[in-house]
Amino acid sequence: MPIIQIETQNTWRAMSPLIINQKDTSLLVWIPPGEFEMGDGKETSCPKHRVHLDGYYMGVYCVTNRQYKVFVDKTGHRPPDNSKWVAPEYADHPVVCVNWEDATAYCAWAGLQLPTEAQWEKSARGPSGFIYPWGNEWDQARCRNDKNKGDQTTCRVYDYPEGVSGCGTYNQSGSVWEWCQDWYESDYYKKSPRENPAGPSTGSDRVIRGGSWNIDFAGRYRAARRINDDPPYRSDNGGFRACLPPGQRQSGQVRQRKARG
Questions:
Q1: Which domains does the chain have, with CATH numbers?
Q2: Given a cut of 90, is residue 99 above it in pLDDT?
């Protein structure tokens, strides 16, 4: 995979260190602590409100078929429900046809975890709080979607560098919907804590974020857009990325990598 490129106009990315999780080779970028405006007010489920998050490391890329195969081979976990995941030409595509339990099991094996939806949104919107990872205007050329996929579905996790977020994360719009930790509740923001919200304590569906390759509605690619899905459900447009929460960097499973800009 290519080394992440740092754009100096985005101050987080210019200074943010990268680490590699040695267990699964995930590349993660530091998201500094602080407040951000969560929600964009465009739907009743995502009103604008201020949230403070502790610092954390976010996966630069979604977990790939290559990475997931190592997990399956080493643990005997059930494989995805598709044949492409073992094809060499799809090795760097995001793993799909995995449900919330599969994603959680992978993260536990790797010493990581699924991001909360607050962590996911903060990294997707970047320091400028954009509507889309790249800015405030929809641009179908900056992510994999129904209008530009041709006869394909997902893309390689490092494709569409022009759509990278201000934090340096790739494809947080398009390619695949991404599982988050949280239970979904449509009016959760009305009672969400100001510090490190982690979602409701119970529920029936989990949060997914980001849009996917088979959608032609621009609004669903917004970084603040909230969607829910049944945790056992596996689909060919659903994957995940991992994060490293505060306090786990000392586990010995990561090593520093200097960002080049």
A1: 11-251 (3.90.1580.10)
A2: yes
